[in-house]
From TrEMBL:
This is Uncharacterized protein DUF1080. Residues 1-21 form the signal peptide. Residues 35-242 form the 3-keto-alpha-glucoside-1,2-lyase/3-keto-2-hydroxy-glucal hydratase domain. It comes from the Bacteria.
């Protein structure tokens, strides 16, 4: 094969691949058949509200260029507009979210959230898939054994040491799977956390964590999904979920 023919074939392949690449904030026919639904349409805040409000925040969050993003506010937890939550609760589900952080950023994806637990300042209470610049943000060195680093079950279970974190400014994909008592955190296609609730061992982890002050933390069978405002610019897209059958 000549060099010219090889270059032409490579160009055709590149163009074809780009043409068939899935656009952000869309679902394929296969995903729809599998029961996936978008939680963010890429254009509006439909399906989301403030954690202590019936409406979407007017400041602190923006929907632009196919992303839903936290704006800069100096790193204060909930100090700008506060967190946003889904307008309905979920029990058994598979959730996928693309996220992109900025240098030094802190944020999180929470689930089993009860917005009525914390009526004061700070973030609403629930399980947290940690989003963090592990190399810069000081929270990475707090907690125990790295349980406040990227993709960890915050303050309870550290993510695997070999987790595949992409560089600052690139998109990472979080995946959270909940079915009955079983939970999993995935990062860029790799499972990095796994746990089972309602066991003596798990309840001991809760008792040893910052969540011990919240009555019955970890015992809920459903709750809201939350994107956290921690005052750092962080963007989300391709937020999609499919509900799973309950464990019999």
């Amino acid at each position: 094969m000549s060099t010219r023919t090889t270059l032409l074939a490579t160009l055709i392949l590149t163009i074809t691949t780009a043409a068939i690449a899935q656009a952000p904030n869309t679902l394929t026919a296969k995903e729809k058949a599998q029961g996936w639904h978008l939680l963010f349409d890429g254009k509006t805040s439909n399906g989301w509200r403030g954690d202590h409000s019936a409406t979407f925040p007017t400041t602190g969050w923006e929907v632009n260029d196919g992303m839903i993003s936290v704006t800069e506010h100096g790193g204060e937890e909930g100090g700008n507009a506060g967190d946003i939550i889904t307008t309905r609760t979920y029990a058994n589900f598979e959730l996928e979210v693309d996220f992109r952080i900025t240098p030094g950023a802190n944020s999180g994806i929470k689930y089993f959230v009860d917005p009525d637990l914390n009526k004061g300042k700070g973030s609403a209470i629930g399980f947290e898939y940690q989003i963090l610049d592990d190399a810069v943000h000081p929270d990475a060195k707090k907690g125990a054994n790295g349980d406040r680093t990227m993709a960890s079950l915050y303050d309870m279970i550290p993510a695997a040491k070999n987790k595949p974190v992409r560089p600052i400014g690139e998109w990472n994909t979080a995946r959270i799977v909940i079915q009955g008592a079983h939970g999993e955190h995935w990062l860029n296609g790799v499972k990095v956390v796994e746990y089972d609730r309602f066991t003596p061992q798990f309840r001991k982890m809760v008792a040893d964590s910052k969540y011990h002050v919240w009555p019955n933390f970890g015992e809920a069978h459903d709750g809201y999904i939350l994107l956290q405002d921690h005052g750092f610019p962080v963007s989300f897209r391709n937020v999609k979920i499919r509900e799973l059958p309950p464990v019999k």
